[in-house]
Amino acid sequence: MAYINSLSALADPTRRQVFEVIAATPSPVGAVAAKLPVSRPAVSQHLKVLSDAGLVMCRAQGTRRIYAVRPEGLAELRKWLDQFWTKALDSFASEINDKEADRHD
Predict the structure, then answer these.
(1) pLDDT tens across 26-37, in order?
(2) Residue 94 per-residue DSSP state
(3) pTM surpassing 0.85?
(4) SS (H, E, C) 8-36
(5) Is the model more confident about 45 or about 98?
């Protein structure tokens, strides 16, 4: 049920913005904060939550820490969401097939 942690972490609008900035370009905290109306300490706190949820990773580059999206962190969430998409497509196909069958009767 790792998708629950992902959903919880992304439920906060500011945290989603932080995630979207990191998804566009791996960045240090200061660069993320410069793109958003929040302080560096707030960005750090949001990154901690995203990291704890397994959505972002951090790597050292000299004295800076660069944050990037952790693709495998989204896998559980995507798997959970895909089940609904598959069911929706199956239902849609079934509805179309039923209407086609009714038309030919």
Answers:
(1) 999 999 999 999
(2) H
(3) no
(4) HHHCCHHHHHHHHHHHHCCECHHHHHHHC
(5) 45
